[in-house]
């Protein structure tokens, strides 16, 4: 007997109801571990119900006045006579918000930076490891400068630089959205920044914010390369630099291989070859540079976490278990509340087989492999920032393709409900972290 698939819009409505119901349940439950859907707990029962009612009103208004909604969110983006001024103001405004609401919930790794910097910076000029070379070098040098000039602490210097990275991220995201979605650019930006991975830029004291801004720059230039506007050399150069900031960017190498293959097939074989050489040349050059600045090459094998501290690579991979995988799914929902959209997008083949989607799909797919195989040493929640970059290509892929679905019933209402719920949940978490004490 052949079973008919449910109508497409019912999947999205079901996801919306499931998320909304989950968010509303936990304010009434004291003991729970589902951090990915429980951040309304900080609001309490009364405010959570009020928030849900406001989302409902937004959805109703979106349905009643679709023309007004469309006009508000699809205004032409290029009317400004001085677009650079708009980007500058956007960056400054974003930095101000990020820094004012900076994260005070610092994990044990972040708390350990202060003694490490106090020990190594006076002796070596910087604190550096092979896993996050330029991230640590720039953070430790910036702390030394600001400490001498203003008496800043290590956490405060991190919070400032993370907020600067966030400003760059927002500017890049707007520029990328204009290329991808044209008149729907604001919708795409709004949807992407509704995810919990934005906590990275609210002054996070860890070594992922600068890398994440570079990852977005790689995705943007990589997308341009799939359209033929630029060659694969530009994205290859940026990804190589990103890997010298943090090795986790290496999980994007399969997507770069796809760009190189595209260039090769298009006859740009010189540029394809240069893109392939960019990673070993820049990464190798960085290793040599730091070998002469207090970080011996032998430490890359014996002290690098990525290489298992002497070759014990399997220690880095998680042992599959239902409990651990459930925690990682929970974390994914915290970092990208709309992650469940991927299921109907795949079932109904809304992610078209075209170069841009193939590139984003490879980037998102291998980052998901990283998330579900690489072990969280401190547990999923305390290691949230290690996996936050996963949500960048995944959220862009999902929201970009959702906004392209023509004829989907209740699309405006579904979009308004999903984004509003995600925004409320994410920024409840972010604001609560601003007032929360660090563990330990």
* Oligomeric state of shown chains: single chain
Q: Helix segment count?
A: 20
The termini sit apart by 59 Å
Q: Percent of residues in beta strands?
A: under 5%
Order of helices and strands: HHHHHHHHHHHHHHHHHHHH
What gyration radius follows from the Cα positions, in whole Å? 22 Å
Shape: globular
| Secondary structure: helix percent | 55-70%
What ranges have pLDDT less than 50 throughout 5 or more consecutive residues?
A: 72-80
Strands, count: 0
Characterize the main sheet.
none
> How would you classify the helix and strand content by structural class?
mainly alpha
Mean pLDDT, all residues: 90
Structure commentary:
By secondary structure, the protein is an all-alpha fold. Helix content is 66%, strand content 0%. The protein contains 20 helices and no strands. The chain has helices at residues 8-25, 44-64, 66-73, 83-100, 108-124, 133-150, 154-181, 185-192, 209-227, 233-245, 253-265, 269-291, 298-302, 308-311, 322-335, 342-347, 355-373, 384-387, 391-402, 411-434. Helix 11 runs antiparallel to helix 17.
């Amino acid at each position: 007997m052949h079973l008919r698939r449910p109508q497409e819009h019912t999947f999205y409505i079901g996801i919306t109801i499931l998320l909304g119901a989950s968010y509303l349940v936990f304010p009434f439950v004291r003991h729970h571990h589902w951090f990915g859907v429980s951040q309304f707990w900080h609001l309490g029962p009364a405010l959570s119900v009020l928030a849900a009612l406001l989302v409902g009103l937004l959805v109703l208004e979106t349905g009643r006045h679709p023309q007004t909604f469309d006009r508000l969110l699809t205004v032409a983006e290029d009317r400004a006579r001085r677009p650079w001024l708009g980007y500058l103001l956007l960056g400054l405004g974003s930095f101000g918000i990020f820094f004012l609401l900076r994260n005070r919930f610092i994990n044990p790794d972040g708390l350990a930076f202060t003694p490490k910097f106090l020990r190594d910076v006076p002796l070596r000029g910087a604190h550096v490891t092979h896993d996050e070379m330029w991230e640590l070098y720039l953070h430790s040098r910036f702390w030394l400068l600001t400490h001498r000039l203003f008496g800043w602490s290590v956490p405060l210097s991190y919070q400032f630089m993370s907020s600067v990275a966030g400003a760059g991220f927002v500017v890049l995201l707007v520029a990328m959205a204009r290329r991808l979605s044209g008149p729907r650019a604001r919708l795409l930006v709004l949807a992407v920044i509704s995810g919990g991975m934005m906590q990275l830029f609210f002054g996070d004291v860890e070594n992922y914010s600068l890398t994440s801004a570079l990852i977005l720059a790689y995705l943007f230039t990589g997308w341009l390369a799939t359209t033929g506007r630029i060659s694969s050399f530009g994205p290859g150069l940026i990804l190589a630099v990103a890997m010298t900031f943090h090795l986790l960017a290496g999980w994007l190498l399969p997507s770069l291989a796809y760009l190189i293959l595209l260039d090769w097939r298009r006859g740009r074989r010189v540029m394809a070859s240069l893109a392939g050489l960019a990673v070993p040349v820049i990464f190798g050059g960085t290793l040599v540079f730091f070998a002469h600045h207090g970080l011996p090459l032998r430490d890359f094998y014996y002290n690098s976490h990525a290489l298992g501290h002497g070759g014990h690579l399997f220690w880095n991979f998680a042992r599959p278990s239902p409990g651990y995988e459930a925690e990682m799914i929970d974390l994914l929902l915290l970092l990208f509340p709309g992650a469940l959209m991927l299921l109907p997008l795949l079932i109904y083949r809304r992610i078209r087989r075209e170069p841009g989607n193939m590139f984003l799909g490879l980037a998102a797919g291998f980052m998901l492999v990283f998330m579900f195989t690489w072990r969280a040493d401190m547990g999923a929640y305390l290691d949230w920032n290690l996996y936050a970059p996963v949500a960048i290509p995944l959220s862009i892929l999902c929201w970009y393709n959702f906004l392209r679905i023509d004829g989907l019933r209740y699309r405006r209402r579904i979009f308004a409900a999903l984004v509003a719920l995600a925004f409320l949940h994410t920024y409840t978490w972010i604001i609560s972290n601003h007032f929360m004490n660090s563990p330990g």
